[in-house]
Amino acid sequence: MKKIVVSLCLMASCLMAYGQRTYRFERADRLFQEGKAFFELRNFPGCSDKLMAFKAISHDRDLIQEADYMLAVVASEQGREDAAAVMERYLSLYPDSRHANEAAFLLGSYYFAHEDYGTAIQWFNTSEIDLLGIDQQEDYAYRLAYSLLQLHDLRTARNYFARIEEVGRKYRVPATYYLAYINYAEDKLKQAEPRFEQLKSEPAYREQSLYYLMQIHYVDERYDRVKSEGKALLSAYPNSRNSAEAYRLLGDVAYREGDEATAIKMLDKYVERADSFVRGDLYILGVCRYNRGDYPEAIQAFAEVVGEEDELMQNACLYLGQCYLQTGDRNRARMSFEQAATLTFDPKVQETAMYNYALLIHETSFSGFGESVTIFEDFLNRFPDSKYADKVSDYLAEVYLTTKNYDAALASIDKIRRPGRKILAAKQNILFRMGVEAFTARRPSEAIRRFDEAITPGVYDADAYSQAYYWRGETYYRQDDFNNAAADYRSYLSNATDRSAEAYPLAYYNLGYCLFKQQRYNDALAEFRRYINLEPRKESVSYADAYNRVGDCLFHARQFEAADENYTRAAALQPSSGDYALYRKGFLLGLQKNYQGKITVMERVVREYPESPHAAAALFEMGRSYVMLEDEDRAAAAFTQLQQKYPLHTLARKAGLQLGLLYFNSNRPEQSIKAYKKVISDYPGSEEARTAVQDLKAVYVDMNDVAGYATYVRSLGDMAARFEVSEQDSLTYFAAEKRFLRGESEAEQSLRNYLRQFPKGAFSARANYYLAQIAYDAKNYEEAKKYYEVVIRSGDTKFGEEALTRKGEIEYMNKDYAAALESFKRLAAIATTAEVRDGARLGALRCARRTKQSADAVKMADELLKNEKISPEIAAEARFLRMKSYIDLKEDAKAQADLVTLSKDTRTVYGAESKYLLAQRYFDRNEIDKAEKEMLGFIEQGTPHSYWLARGFILLSDVYARKGDKFQARQYLTSLQKNYKGGNKDDVMAMIDKRLAALK
């Protein structure tokens, strides 16, 4: 019985399996049919679902191919991003498909819809139009024609559009429009016009038809029709994309008919709407604005006309010059007249422009080599019968007064027997400017002499007179002559003609510093406060610094709370340079016995400003505060950190003494001995070392180890003599020192006698230093260098900085740049003041450049330029040398940035050369317009460094030669040849001759 049951079960399972297979086949066919039905009903989501399900279970290749086609069409119809990829994959899988022709058409249509007209044409050309349906054939023809039109194949596009116009239904009107457009584009206006007239009745094309008809009527000078079509267009379509052009044509027509008010109204609307402009119409707008006295608006219009050298540009430049004159911008007026004068299209325009150009050069002191003389003379030669000839002749008599050739101007003035007040004012101004040039070039004696000459005659040019006092004060200040500097700042303040000038509040700031340097703190406080009240530039470094100085003055007056408030304000104003203010705040907390507060502030100085000159002092003060708090371990840690981070700082020596004393007082004699011995070994010639020897003796005595102390002293050898000062040693030295300090001639012999008696004496380093100074002053540099080296080797820090400074200077003077570099590097490391450190870095920077150590040069320059208080002259030199180093290191972008910064001030030789180099770089990169702009700006700025200005003229000639403007290229060379005073001293004349020969 069991066997029968099993057999029945097996039969049932077989029947079920057969039934499942039948169901699966029937289901796949049904899925395909349903998907196809959905496809025909354009139910694309349903179609896609059914066909994807069909493909998942079917193995019928024919039906799968058909399903893939329908799925590709669905992707296209749904506008999916992957539609093209799906269709192309279909064609790749089934290259012989019966749908291949229609698939290619659909692909072309896809790319047409995505405005990829080139790819669309490729696929349309793959498809056969005759194999498509009737509706598809017209779609094909229109889309192909439009694509061809977009790719400027007008001839082929015309054929398709003509056929569509003839037999089409869906695209007949668009085809007519595009045929009219093609005729218009090919200048077949008579054929285009009737089609556009016909299309005016078609709503979809009425706007564009009115627009093109307006253009056609304008060309044919049918201005009434232009106005009627234009008004109809703007009335019916106020926001038309063609409205800008419509307004342009209406404005042009109004101008031609003499209606300037309407012309301005229409052209203004044109400018408001247009993305780009027709130069002639903007010229018309400019003329209309000029005639009505609307000069700023006229400038805007004319500025869009210049750029393309033609008669239109020449006239626009003449108008621009007049407009700038009316608005008071004489500099731009001069440049505009210059441009018009160089163009030869209209001789009358050129004559007027050249006269105005020459006159402005004369009146604005714009000249590099006295060109105004040449320009006036050229004018008379070119236009001898000009109505301006008499005036030009008069100007020639006084032309030197407006040049920057100050020596020539002074020579001319001195020839005048009875100069009038105007001439004397010019002379005062020239002398003042010569003083500024000498100051900028770091020739202080010459600067003071020129300022003296400017001040002595009295007031002729009030501004030059008062500024001469200011700049003479600056010169005295740089020489540490604070009395004379203060007197001159006061004279400037009492004579200043413009109290809104930048220098006016700065004079109080500088006066404050003069008094501060003389320790007249109450007087300095008043001046710094006056500066703070007057300075409008609250973001300036000097403004923040003034609060620091106010704090210092109050500190000296023991007004600690007020001092703290000012330090806080200074740090808030200039957080990047707030180290000093923070340090002083900490110091004040210590005076108020808030030692923990002081420690917190000093920790911030060390953490936030590790490169600060106050960081070492902050560590030292931290150690002292921990001592006051009786926290010996943290005090020792602070002093040790100071020694490790700043081993060459003077406070590192003092920290060593503090460590020795700290360990001794806390009953750690071994550590105390170690600390004292470190001071003695690291700084053998210092006062601290002498103190350490004495304190060390007390430690050994306390340990009952006098023998140990004696053994240690003997181990010092010759060095021990420095620490044991005999009475005869000190008496002999101090007698010699007195003679040196009094400037007696016997001082040298006395010092030599001391060294003979005590070659290793306690004061031997100082004696050698004084002998070095005597030799240096006598210009016996090699002998001085030997003495300085003895001082440096001695380890005596009292004169260490000065000895290293002089040694480096002598090595630099002797062109031993490698040795000088090491001297200056060492000096920068041990410098105790920012001034000495920056001087050392500048010396190291110069040496690094000389020895081609570009990376070192960049590092030194970066360190110098971090200090916002360095003088502009040093900053300019540092940036210039860094720029040269960047070029060597192939860091072009950084070099370019420095060149741009330097070139802004052409008063210095670095700025003048950089201005030229910047333009030369543009020229070498074929950025001709930039090179031209830089050199024209250079000539406008002017410079006392005539060589680099001459090189700029030559470069401008090269610029115009490359532009093909040989006339202007020759003009710059011949002008330079006539006016440059360098003669045969340099290579300028040879460069001129070479280029003139090439231009012939």
TrEMBL record:
Gene3D superfamilies for the chain: Tetratricopeptide repeat domain
Q: Does the keyword Signal apply?
A: yes
Q: What PANTHER family does the database record attribute to this sequence?
A: CELL DIVISION CYCLE 16,23,27, CELL DIVISION CYCLE PROTEIN 27 HOMOLOG
Q: What is this protein called?
A: Tetratricopeptide repeat protein
> Keyword Repeat, does the record have it?
yes
Q: Which top-rank group of organisms is this from?
A: Bacteria
Query: Which Pfam family, an example, fits this chain?
Result: TPR_16
From the UniProt record, list the TPR repeat ranges. Answer: 505-538, 544-577, 653-686
Provide the species name.
Tannerella sp. oral taxon BU063 isolate Cell 6/7/9
Span of the secretion signal? 1-19
Q: Which UniProt keywords apply?
A: Repeat, Signal, TPR repeat
- Matching InterPro entries: Sel1-like (IPR006597), TPR-like_helical_dom_sf (IPR011990), TPR_2 (IPR013105), TPR_rpt (IPR019734)
The organism's taxonomy opens as:
Bacteria, Pseudomonadati, Bacteroidota, Bacteroidia, Bacteroidales
Question: Which SMART domains does the entry mention?
Answer: SEL1, TPR
